[in-house]
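Key idea: predict the complex, not the pieces.
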Amino acid sequence: MTTSKGRVRNKRGEGAQLRDEIVSGATRLLVQGGEHSVTLRAVAREVGISAPAIYQHFADRDAILFAVAEVAFAELEHALNDVGDHADPADRLRAVAVAYLTFAKHSPTRYQIMFGGVWDASKSLQRTPSMAADLAELGLGAFRIISRAMADCIEAGCSTGTDPHADATALWAGLHGLAQLQVATPLFPWPSGLQSTLIDRLALLRG
Amino acid sequence: MTTSKGRVRNKRGEGAQLRDEIVSGATRLLVQGGEHSVTLRAVAREVGISAPAIYQHFADRDAILFAVAEVAFAELEHALNDVGDHADPADRLRAVAVAYLTFAKHSPTRYQIMFGGVWDASKSLQRTPSMAADLAELGLGAFRIISRAMADCIEAGCSTGTDPHADATALWAGLHGLAQLQVATPLFPWPSGLQSTLIDRLALLRG
DNA sequence: CCCATTACTTTACGGGTGTTAACTTACACG
DNA sequence: CGTGTAAGTTAACACCCGTAAAGTAATGGG
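Result:
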């Protein structure tokens, strides 16, 4: 086999493959046990390699978590983009919002490291300023999809909003709060239909 | 005789005082360094006692954090109740909402252990079902203040809402999302006036 | 065919954690 | 005054962590 880039090496797999295994192993741990259970050694254990082997692919524990977040962001963006065709821009916006909520609800721990990281100032992600900036950039990608759908609604007259950015931001905040709060306090008597209510009110739909 | 290290030990009735010192020490650590830095030993260090001494007052580390949350909930409730007199129920609701946001923004890490605990399934608070229930109960206390203010608005005709519980819940979700998201991602270009926009929209004010 | 490189291994260091056990001290009471 | 009890102490157990250093097996170029 030719090695133009010299990537093929060891018994376990071809270079980048192990990196992916590490990321998905870490993701698995995150989903199952929360952020704290994603430790360097635990990831290595999960993947079936020795702990120091990880340093071939990641600078430190935080870099792994960052990679997990990257994947999660990509997945979220995909979910938001892939809501199907909707003749009515309002329907589309609603679908995007629902997709956002579905993602957050379906994988809450990943959602947390994406958007809740800064809370814990010293341990979790974003210790490095550059990392915070990168995370913010990725988050903006997801936000822009909401923002665009919102703008389309306003332009089409489905929404009585006037400032797409401000309106989309308000909607985003509402979605975030609903998603997180519902997962965090499942014992609360959540009214049915709350989701639609909140979306329609914040997006100023059907006004 | 006092110990060579100077701390007066074991006076009867000093017990409860030390308990408070532990709670406030833990609070201090939480505020400064995030939840992960509130470790049993660190708390003991902060208070100036030995780690095992804590077991006289708390069953385990989680119990300390729970006590911290209790105090924080009391403080939040007090802040929500103490928004001054307002002739207009809408003004009062707005003031309550602002107070909520102010609290969350001013002490984000405490806010997190109050409402964000369940995210991390295995480490943080609420491992015990009973603890989750207790936390939920405390949270309900704060929510009821919002709910009552909301109901007053509806009754007075300041709000076009119809279902006080549902409307208050939507507002709560919005407030939670705004507070947390703004703290979590400070780099985002937050529009000015977003706070009032969100409150008025979710509370259906000035209809 | 040899050898440098690469990717991984084992080993080990230095530290942290929650928690238990055994000891010590100070006070309260008979 | 002696003594029992409660509230502290120190010491220790058993784990976990991140990561650095050194060893080893496979690979591919010269």
